[in-house]
Amino acid sequence: MGRFTTVIFDFGGVITASPFEAFNRLEEERGLPRDFVRRVNAANPDGNAWAKFERAEIDAAAFDALFAEEARALGHELEGKAVLAVIAGAVRPAMVAALDTLKDRGFTIACITNNVPGGKMGIRGAGMTRSEEAAIEVADIMARFEHVIESSKAGVRKPDPRIYEMMCEKLGVEAGECIYLDDLGINCKPASQLGMHAIKVTSGEQALADLSAALGMQLP
In CATH terms, is domain 19-86 a member of 1.10.150? Predict the structure, then answer.
């Protein structure tokens, strides 16, 4: 099998399309500056509404109000519930096929995801059929992983190095045996510093090409 035994995936932006695409659509609909949601989330990144929600320190109602306050402080009106409503990304079938191939080849696969309480890995809705279908689809994907760490349940979120260490301990592997994929460079950095081979994901095709090269095998 070579140097690597384990492949650890982020979920949103890796297994699914990037939520930033949905944020941009929301911004366009609301007449907001492009990447405004990212600006709000980048301000006070360890203590803002998003960070607190992903650590399950506040509930959805509190997030809605606190995010709105943060948006207002940056000059625009945007409620938190509108952001939560759009962040479910479309699943990338080729990435799911790659999960199955990796398992068939004897690799351990796992997932570390920053999410929010009750978020179903980024799938949210108001009981509508599509949301229910999406939640079932995500649950089916998650069942493939040896272990999943969710920030809202662990009480720690990426890029805190502890969350990567928790995964290694749970799987009984060394960081040097692991490949880690994430769409955010800030989350790849601590994984790399711990000794993992980190891949920053910009598209499904690029991710699979880089993962194939690292493993010395062709993935779908």
Answer: yes
Residue 87: the pLDDT is 77
Structure tokens at 208: 């699979």
Contact 209, 98 (CB under 8 A): no
Residues 6+ apart with CB under 8 A from 26: 32, 37, 82, 83, 86
Q: Write down the pLDDT at residue 22.
A: 85
Measured distance CA(61)–CA(165) in Å, rounded: 32
Residues 206 and 202: their CA atoms lie apart, in Å, by 7
Residues 116-146 have pLDDT tens digits of 876 544 433 333 334 566 778 888 999 999 9
Give pLDDT, residue 74. Answer: 97
How many Å separate Cα 82 from the centre of its chain?
19
Question: Does the domain at residues 6-18+89-215 carry the CATH identifier 3.30.450.40?
Answer: no
CB 145 within 8 A of CB 129: no
Burial label for 29, CB within 10 Å (0-12, 13-18, 19+), is exposed
Structural domain boundaries in the chain: 6-18+89-215, 19-86
